[in-house]
Automatic annotation (TrEMBL):
Its EC number is 6.1.1.4. The lineage of its organism: Bacteria, Pseudomonadati, Bacteroidota, Flavobacteriia, Flavobacteriales. This is Leucine--tRNA ligase. Residues 11-155, 779-813 form the Aminoacyl-tRNA synthetase class Ia domain. PROSITE patterns: AA_TRNA_LIGASE_I (PS00178). GO terms for molecular function: leucine-tRNA ligase activity. Keywords: Aminoacyl-tRNA synthetase, ATP-binding, Cytoplasm, Ligase, Nucleotide-binding, Protein biosynthesis. It comes from Flavobacterium zhoui. SUPFAM superfamilies: Anticodon-binding domain of a subclass of class I aminoacyl-tRNA synthetases (SSF47323), Nucleotidylyl transferase (SSF52374), ValRS/IleRS/LeuRS editing domain (SSF50677). It catalyses: tRNA(Leu) + L-leucine + ATP = L-leucyl-tRNA(Leu) + AMP + diphosphate.
Amino acid sequence: MKYNPNEIEAKWQKYWLDNATFKAENNSTKPKYYVLDMFPYPSGAGLHVGHPLGYIASDVYSRYKRHQGFNVLHPMGYDSFGLPAEQYAIQTGQRPEDTTSVNIDGGTDKEGNKIAGYRKQLDKIGFSFDWSREVRTSNPDYYKHTQWIFIQLFNSWYNKNSDKAEDISTLISIFLTEGNVSVNAVCDENIDAFSANEWNAFAKEQQERILLQYRLTYLAETEVNWCPGLGTVLANDEIVNGVSERGGFTVVRKKMTQWSMRISAYAERLLQGLNAIDWSESIKESQRNWIGKSVGATVSFKVESQKSKVESEQQYIDVFTTRPDTIFGVTFMTLAPEHELVSQITTAEQKAAVKAYIEKTSKRSERERMADVKTISGVFTGAFAEHPFTKEPIPVWIGDYVLAGYGTGAVMAVPCGDERDYAFANFFKGQKGMQEIKNIFANVDISEVAYGSKDNVIIANSDFLNGLNYKEATKKAIEELEKLNQGKGKINYRLRDAVFSRQRYWGEPFPVYYVNGLPQMIDAQHLPIILPEVEKYLPTEDGLPPLGNALVWAWNTETNQVVNTDLVDNKTIHPLELNTMPGWAGSSWYWMRYMDAHNENEFGSKDALAYWESVDLYIGGSEHATGHLLYSRFWNKFLKDKGFAPTEEPFKKLINQGMILGMSAFIYRCSWAMTGTSHDGVNEQAASIFVTKSKYDKIVKGNEEEIEKVKNIYLYTLTAKFPDVELISLGGQLSMQLNPIHVDVSLVNSSDELDEEKFKKSREHYANAIFIKDENEKIIVGREIEKMSKSKYNVVTPDDICDEYGADTLRLYEMFLGPLEQAKPWNTAGISGVFGFLKKLCRLYFDDNGLIVTNEKPTKDNLKSLHKTIKKVAEDIESFSFNTSVSQFMICVNELSTQNCHSRAILEPLAIVISPYAPHIAEELWSLLGNTGSIATVAFPVFEAKYLVESEKEYPVSFNGKMRFTMVLPLDLTKEQIEEIVMKDGRTIKQLEGRTPNKVIIVPGKIINLVG
């Protein structure tokens, strides 16, 4: 009987599927435990070995919890809406729903590409997912509920008095009886006050416009990241170095009317909630910084050019500052280039410079501008503001270090107390519109650097603030600003409302139609509003989103149906929203859908939600810290406010798995630069020449002999192809360049040797490649650890590993690579060692003739090896130290092999202990031992400390420091008893040869040494 992983694993995967082994119950007498993975986006590229790392860890934990008697929910689904599928559809003419389906279920796409399919790949690794609860965010039966949640947000406002979201009807009731003067809500800035009588007198359309200023999801003109190349708005995390992550297209800042989510209403609760959850401090800190709570004051500066106007038309520049104590140190003001006042206050002389600067900065993302602290740029607007106390004119600049969406989009620049303001002032020193830096700190030298500390500050040159410290001056400045009605104390947050519109096709349709330009919600009973068919997925010719191409995309308010677009009459048939929801819509509540995945009427029943409550363990990437993880907490808190979610926080414990890095391979190509013009184009047609790694290293160091060899080979091959080319003249025109080129790792063996023939066949233009080899006639590639990616040709698929070594080997190896939360390089060469371990494990249970397990009573050493392993593995799983568990398995199996242990009393519990890590072989061994049913829910063995208590010690017996023999003695002997036994031992007598030692050194439990 041999270990055949492919046969064993197929058998038990079928068993689990047929018997619904991992199906969780919504009503159980067992305690519940909910383990969740961040569900994948199903791309056509499928899984590489880096993807399953977190899934294997969560699966180990889920299986362990089942062994402990928990009712474990461990579901899986697909985040299947998104931009990649849409871009692929545009490129290939396929429907996104078709490619998404093939990517999940496997098959052949329209292009003839064979797709393994995520589901088959996941099944092959042996995960204990409850597939009966699978969700796909692009299925109408799922996004029906996403649309419903959107409607709830639209019909809600945030009451600061109750500190939660409430139904919009309660706000309307206040308006009906009191107007809005006493309303304490999170809402738009600068809302006009009105009385109850005025509200009742407003037309319905006016009332709806006012309510939009309070709703938790609302339409507003917003500064967005617009990508013309993709025809859509992008989130900050979809932009890298100022271009789109997908496609590398230019991204510009642009104002558009968009749906937004008022996440800012929850800023303080999101901040405080971090104290109640077991997440890594780094993730918490990322969210704290993103939320960005600041305590300070708002200050209003009058725009000087508006002085002649009546007060009601006076324009102000509002700023938020955390240092109102420095108000007298204001030297200039800086507005964000996108600030609405820029176009109004810029003087005629400065208009051209300001326009050019705005156009330039619009191509930089906010993230790029925030990160770039070295570049200093800005333009003077020509306008001045008035200091609230001194009435002095303050020049107004624009600079891209100020962001429109943070605070008010304007700063009062105090160079003496802020490094960035100091650098800006010195950079533009001497220019018109830049005043001398004012120093308002007593006994502080600012000739070379700003003084940004609040400690030991005594304010000077500041009128009524002179002599005060930071706290005293802050309080006094706010009091005086309030007297002037030009400022007040305020808490500010960096967190901005989230743009919720995307100009894409492949996303959730909004359940919204428009009457006279105002949004109306479709009644929940008519959901889902299903994504319509379109002929093409690009924006329309007049710039509308792709849904503008839909022929059937209008709402009939009489029949409550989607009807032909050309029937719109704006009476009973109205246009539907053309934008779709962003990718994070469906992922912001999916964990609750798993709790009751087949409920057609609601996203989850109260009973199911109450039973599962929240996720006990969530595993996923840290890259989602300020995206998905923040939006999920926001939606969960909102649903809790409305009585739908049972808990305030969605995820109790969060683990961020590290990245598995690829070991890239490089081949070194010689290319040539020609200084002359007579042979243009010749080099492109010459054969590609590649040098081995050792020769590359020599050439890089300037080894003339090697350079000359390569050049001569190149010239020889070139003149063979082009006889008319003169060697000497050409040689004088050449300069060699070496380019490292990624080569597919599948073409390289474990000794880093390139398979030349396969390489030549890998790409058409390498068919005639010439190789300059090393002294062993080999081409050795270079190696470098990088992110695993198809573009770097360093991807290793789990399918290949499973086919050759089995899923249990893959699972153990990924856990063995290193601590879960650290990045680690993949090295396929290490796989064979783990595979060998599993074969050695099997040899404890069976040999070529079959089962060799006996009913012999285990020895003390057997029990010690087992219970060391039970203790270690249980502790490791609880602390997520999976790599050291695998080491312990290897130690245990080596010890039991040495002990020649085949005892059932040892090997049966060992199969259970190893089951979370290597479930297939564990199931097989459990079955071979005569057990029925799955090992998956068998109780985890109990550690018994008595088996690790040492009663004897093997002492090394030394003579003058040199160990001559060992003897086993009870640990409870005294020094005197040990000495008596040692001195009577025949081996001691032989060593002493009749002599009496000068000294006998005995350390109980450690050493025995006879001296002299």
